Amino acid sequence: MKISTSIVLSTVTLASILNPIDGHSDPDQFVQSERKLIVGGETTEPGTKTYTTGLRSTVEGDNFCAGSLITPTYVLGASHCVPGDIRWVSIGSHYLNGTQDGGQIRVVSITNHPNYTTDGDQMSNDFVLLKLERPSKFKPVKLAAADGSDLKTGERVTASGWGRTDENGTTSYELQHVKLQLKSNEE
């Protein structure tokens, strides 16, 4: 069974934007709904998962969305976060508004997926690349192979972020992580 690279990237690297995914075999038709949850997660040990990034309007503000450091100068996030006035990325911070334990780097360009669309809470191709002003000192997340050859249906992967830990809860102040199981497009 083939697993869509878009689904894996969103599951593994779009930290805090843990959404129910409608799997499609065509990566250009990736659809998700906007829900910021880390349900069933637990608090992450400080200093781990430092590739998880918080997107901010100000250097000292709270994260309003999250993403993942994928190279020293690029963050992968969700396009639906762009209206949130992304100006800074907090990298390696354990806390929602952390400034002491990570690094804050200015965003110099924002590139949405060219086929990003939204219809209510349903989104297609909900990916954005953020270029940073300077390289981060933190190690980027390890991405899956582009051809999906290193992915297996049923394998456990980790998502992390500051999302709500239950449907009616508040946003977590500390970085959370949760294990998820990869599913095939057919599932």
Automatic annotation (TrEMBL):
Return one Gene Ontology term, BP aspect. proteolysis
Key words of the record: Disulfide bond, Glycoprotein, Secreted, Signal, Virulence
Q: What InterPro entries does this protein map onto?
A: Peptidase_S1, Peptidase_S1_PA, Peptidase_S1_PA_chymotrypsin, Peptidase_S1A, Trypsin_dom
Q: Where is the signal peptide?
A: 1-23
Every copy of the Peptidase S1 domain together lies at 38-187
* Main location, first listed in the record: secreted
The keyword Hydrolase is assigned to this record: no
- Compartments, record wording: Secreted
Give GO MF terms, alphabetically. serine-type endopeptidase activity
In terms of Pfam families, this protein maps to: Trypsin
Gene Ontology cellular component list: extracellular region
Record family assignment = Belongs to the peptidase S1 family.
The protein depicted here goes by the name: Peptidase S1 domain-containing protein
What is the native source organism of this protein? Phytophthora nicotianae CJ01A1
